[in-house]
Amino acid sequence: MRAAIAELRDLLAGRRLVVVSNREPYVHRRTSKGVEVTRPSGGLVAALDPVMQATGGTWIAWGSGDADFEVSDARGRVRVPPDTGAYTLKRVALTEDEVEGYYYEYSNQALWPLCHMAMAHARFRRRPWELYQAANRRFADAVLEESDGDALVWLHDYHLALAPRYIRTRRPEQFIMHFWHIPWPAWDIFRACPQRVEILEGLLAADFTAFQHPRHVEHFLECAERELGASVDRDEGVIEHDGRITHVDAFPISVDFATLDAQARSGESERWMAQLRKRHGLDGKIVALGVDRLDYTKGIPERLRALDRLFERFPEFRGRLVFVQKSAPSRTKIKAYRDLQRQIEREVARLNATWGRAEWRPVLHITRPLPPAGMAALYRLADLCVVSSLQDGMNLVAKEYVACQVDRRGVLLLSELAGAHDELSWALPINPYDAGGTAATMALAAEMPASERAERMDHLRAYVAEHDIYEWMRLHIRAAAHLLAARAATRWIRGRGDEVRARIIGRSRVALLLDFDGTLAPIVPVPEEASLPAPIRDTLNRLAKAPEMLVAVVSGRALDDIRGRAAIDGIVYAGNHGLEIAGPRWTWTHPQAEEARPLVAEACARLGERLGAIPGVTIEDKQFTASVHYRLTPHPYVETVRMAVYEEADRSGGTLVVRQGKKVFELQPYVAWDKGRAVRWILERAIGGGWAEEAGIIYIGDDRTDEDAFAALPDSAVTVKVGANPASTAARYAARDVHEVAEFLQQLAGWLGLDRDPREVAERMRS
Ligand code: GDG
């Protein structure tokens, strides 16, 4: 652990870690003996607390203890742990109304059931949503108050989906991470949420958003794509939305293996084992165990049903097997949770009445709190542990059981629907909805030979030991460190004049290749309204007239459109991502694109009929391709648009494919051609075979499609990505926006001495 923490410190490189979660790591409560401090159990606190102690950052959380603000300063801050005061705990005060609306209602009765696909429990009411927003604002305020822009802000879970956005708005440069501990649902479920756009946009304001499982990542990417029209790179795990980039990945959470292992071996735990055995008559019995917060997602009634089936179908276990259900009552203010608690109590009583005998009670339900040594003892003595979640982000109980199984006697039965399932492949899989199947697996586990149990448990223990909570922390901090390094390495073109100049001046030619929308012309809601700002037109006109200069505009627009819109004489235009290219006196069209032309026309006609009535949709027939824009289309209609476009691609039998751009679906011919191939073609035609050596090349673009051009050009080229957050680009340089592009073009004109006599200019270029 010490080595892991040292590594985390290195990775942080002096940056302050600011953790933000709903639950606080230390709670101060008033008792008859005065104020007492307790540390809530749970994986997150157990993992992050030692790191915070070692790195001395700030932890921001809701101050839920009734003496919390008595022991804190005027800003809600207190040093913790109480004995060493190694880091700052900043408590956020929430009103009773906010706790009710933000925590009990919106977090736990809207987002929790939504994400666990338990829609029968979900309700989305307006007032709780407002309070959820208010509470998220308070957390964001606390972050801004307690940190500077250099800190690494790490938010946790579904309670804080909006806070990233509130922080970003007020501090654009802040590095923000978010970890979502629960599942992210499939889009078909997520779209039931009336606040889905705000939730997604809240999370997308983070630089890095992580989930427990790759499936959750996939779902999230799909939701961003479908709901927001964000552009999504599934291979890279990158979402681009509103000019920002968010990286998305899966980092499965784990437990502090070494500490749990040591706890389970301790004399204290051994005393607890003896005591539990004696008190509950467990000696000589097969002990099966369930450990849960009392939550409807954990599948406790389903587990008891399977137990009923076990005693019914496998009579040999009657009198021999005891099921210990260790439950922690949870969210008891919510009716569904109180109902569940009663249901479980009834079921336990029924099972004991049906199967029990004077000397044998089949089910023990323990709801009293046990200290860590008591929990470790339960895990260590259990022959079977049954985790039967109906949905679960991860499920730490499964990993805690493995870590405490120091005698390697136990068998883990693990729901296929828990996030842990794919990692813990040496567990026995169960389907919680299949009571008969689960009962049969319990019987198999109970009779499993000792050698097989040990072998399975060895594999499980080796896995969890290696992939422990410190490894999870390391993955996060390392990802953050990489992104920060990439950000620091961003070579803003502004201020790098000498370096850029050296790449261009002195060659016999200069080639300036430019994307249009978002690069030369600011993005506007309606594409027809995009126009070239006058100062840029003026500079480009001067550049175009320079001798030995090649200027080309390479756009996704149709050739005629881009030519008319840019309206600069004597330059090369490439339309339709280079499928049609024209110089001052010639035009070329890709031969395969020509063949697709009639199909595009038919598709446009049909799309016009189908989508004509949908507000905000514009269909642009660009002859070789078609663009269906939906920037102004209300969200509920976007799916209809998407389906219609994909149907056209299907209908073409593979001749046309769909590409998604910024709020636009493009229907294009399936040809091996892109802006990269197009610019190489232009350079070859205009300059000749030696273009790579002869010309100083500049390519500037903001779009995903410009990446093909960045990658296709030689290392010596000046490639420039336009965007505020240009991580993960193949371009060498970056410009923040159209203004910086304009500034650079001016600078280029200056280097070429374009206000001077053209002969002098030619001379300067050779010098
Ligand atoms: C969320 C996600 C994800 C349970 N009963 C008792 C007790 N516990 C402790 C366990 C464990 C923790 O509570 C429960 O952790 P889980 O992972 O099972 O579930 P959630 O609370 O739903 O947590 C989940 C987790 O976040 C972390 O990312 O794995 O998927 O839903 O530590 O030991 N502890 C005690 N008595 C109990 O009766 N002392």
Name a few traits of the molecule.
Rossmann fold, binds GDP-alpha-D-glucose, ten-stranded mixed sheet, alpha/beta, 19% strand, 4 domains
Describe the structure in your own words:
- This protein has 767 residues and is an alpha/beta fold.
- It has four domains: 2-250, Glycogen Phosphorylase B (Rossmann fold); 257-467, Rossmann fold (3-Layer(aba) Sandwich), CATH 3.40.50.2000; 491-589 and 673-766, Rossmann fold (3-Layer(aba) Sandwich); 593-669, Alpha-Beta Plaits.
- It is 44% helix and 19% strand.
- It has 27 helices and 30 strands.
- Helix 11 packs parallel to helix 12.
- The longest helix has 21 residues, at 126-146.
- The mean pLDDT is 93.
- Bound molecules: GDP-alpha-D-glucose (GDG).
- GDP-alpha-D-glucose binds next to strand 13, strand 14 and helix 14.
The biggest beta sheet is recorded as:
10 strands, mixed
Number of helices, where a helix is a run of at least 4 consecutive DSSP H or I residues: 27
| Distance from first to last alpha carbon | 61 Å
Mean pLDDT comes to 93
Stretches where pLDDT falls below 50 for ≥5 residues?
Answer: none
